[in-house]
Amino acid sequence: MSYFYQHHYFLNMKKVLYPVFFLCGVFVFSQEGAKNDTIGQASTKEIQEVILKSQRKKQFADKSVYTFDKEALEKARYAKDLLQTLPELQLDPVSNTITSTKGGTSLFLINGIEATDLQIRSVAPSEVVKVEYYDIPPARWASRAETVINIITKSNETGYVFGVDTMSGLTTGFVNASAYANFTKGKNNFGLEYFFNLRDYDDRQVQSIYDYQLNGEHYRSDENRKDHFGYTSQNIALRYTRMVPDQHAFQAKLNMDIVSRFSKGTGESVFTKDSFSEEHEMFKNSGSSYAIPKLDLYYSKKIGSKDELSLNAVGSHYSTNTTESAREWIVPSGVSVYDNDMILETEQTNFVGELAHTHDFKAGKLSSGYRISSAAISNDLNNLAGHSEYSVNYLEQYFYTEFSGKVDKFSYRIGAGLTNIHNKSAANTFDEWSFTPKVILGYQLKNNQSLRLTSSYNPTSPWSSALSSNVVQLAPNIVQKGNPFLKSQQNFSNNLIYSFNNKKFDFNAALFYRYTDRVINQYYILDDTFGGYALTYENGKNSQRYGMQLSGSYKPFGSSLLVLKAVLTPTSETLRTSKGALIKNDYLANNFSVSSEYKSFSVQYMVNIPVYTLSGAFLNTNENQNHFFASYRLKSWSFTAGMYWIGMPSEYKTKSLPESLVDYNVHTKIMNNKSMFVLGVSFDFSKGKKTEIQRKLNNETAPAATF
């Protein structure tokens, strides 16, 4: 995983240009001095001595910086193990990746370059100088992730590293497997990665109820369905890097993502119309597949000792195929209630380009840039409405500049941007410019206490499925479709954060308030085209979310022998629909984990209590957790055993609110996951060191368009 009001284009331009010119004028006439975070040969010994003496956290306005003690470096197999020890991070045992304890999307970097989980595994602990944890990401990453983790490593030497990893369920279709290799010689580095992810579950149970009034009559559809579903995801990556220290760096990455998904379900329902009822049977099948080749080029050039220019271009072109087939009929006559056949074939071209410049002053750093992202999609669609061919284009431009600095105990980051969202479909064209400022202020109360205030304002474009003109049948008298006339929603966000840490305790308390204008809301409307109701999208009037988040970790013995982590977020949220109806919801989000590490043994337990959160006119629960796993390390080998969803299936619930025209409830349980036992083994070997560049730009093209 902020709100904004739009004005006319020229007013926005004035708002951006005046503060930008003012800030630039102030910064240019400030006293200059070089600042360099790059770790070179001369400072390696000094830095290593600091690392070995103590473990330390240093708090800045937008990030925390961590170093690691000798014990942590010796216990870790690779950098990924070090990340797991950070108070804000944890290992997700299901995906075997590092995630934030607070939830949301995390972006990982190595020396400023976007890194995969396998690349993090390829970094030896002794190579890690420090880790920067951004809970308030800089402008160039803010639109992609809620948290950014940057691993700073030492300088380069010739060497190689490789590893393999697999984890599999013993009684069900659950496999995570990967392999990687890196080779460095001189200024050149070659990398190869492969990742394989399989899910194949034959017992997903779905109970759903649709209850509504239509034309003065009462209808109810009570469904029970059992699905066989799953997916296969593969990623192959080839990477070449050439770096000349203090001069320039070049990297070329070629990725191929291969994804296929399927779902085959059968079931029965009781359909009621007033006092009359009848039994129905049904099947619902769906599938999608695509292969995405992606080329990512990056180049940076040092200009003197204070300036750096960076360029990044990412492109992909591919086709997707999505199918859905569903039928419901009366028992025993076999008379059809509805037939839904949908075939969507798309051809998609994505591009992201970014140009950025940084300049170091004695007072701080000025960063400026321009990013453009586009997705052009051609659709060939057969559905309930017949056959259609149409094209859509999604374009976003972002101009930004920000200055960060520190004066005594006071630190700050001030940014100003201009965002353009241009979405064009066969039915509508939306074009809007937004002024996007951001202010971050920090104050060091004591050596281990700080106070931070953040405020930001930015737009969010509707996602492709929300804008889609596709139509599919969900149940008798119920269809689902998108809305190509949606506008962007505008976000205004404020946070006040208090942080405290010592050897045993790391604690954060945050007060937050978020206001969204023109909030995108999913709801039911009467549908004149097909009769009955349609589940679609609208721009509601606004939404608000406010509360407090308490997060932290506690080490009773001051070491990894026992670590307790918890996140509690009491929250109130409201949504006002386009017709003025007010929807309210309160919840207490939570997440808990306990871990212990002794010599070569480690164990971890994770648990939560699912809560309902607002999603349009619905309340959805987050995924339940009740996981335990244990690991043993033997030199370059690691062996893992675990049980996920102990004593319970993974389950998901959705229910509509009283304001909805259709009373909808669904309860989904994946029985294959109940007390799922898994075994894993990994091998990692390294010799020498490898080339890593401090990359300033990291971009990703749009995901595959499916509905």
Brief sketch in words of this structure:
With 707 residues, this protein is mainly β. Helix content is 8%, strand content 65%.
Low-confidence stretches: 1-55, 689-694
- Mean pLDDT across every amino acid position: 87
Radius of gyration: 26 Å
Largest sheet: 22 strands, antiparallel, barrel
* Secondary structural class: mainly beta
Count of DSSP-assigned helices: 7
Beta-strand content bin: over 45%
How much helical structure, as a percent, in the residues? under 10%
Q: State the separation between the terminal residues, measured CA to CA.
A: 21 Å
Structural shape: globular
- SS elements, strand count: 39
Describe the structure.
There is one protein chain. By secondary structure, the chain is mainly beta. Among the domains are: 31-154, Ferric Hydroxamate Uptake Protein, Chain A, domain 1 (Beta Complex); 540-674, no CATH class. The strands form four sheets. The protein has a 22-stranded antiparallel barrel. Strands 1-2-7-8-5-6 form a six-stranded mixed β-sheet. Strands 23-24-28-27 form a four-stranded mixed β-sheet, with no helix packed on it. The chain is globular and about 75 Å long. Residues 1-55 and 689-694 have low confidence and may be disordered.
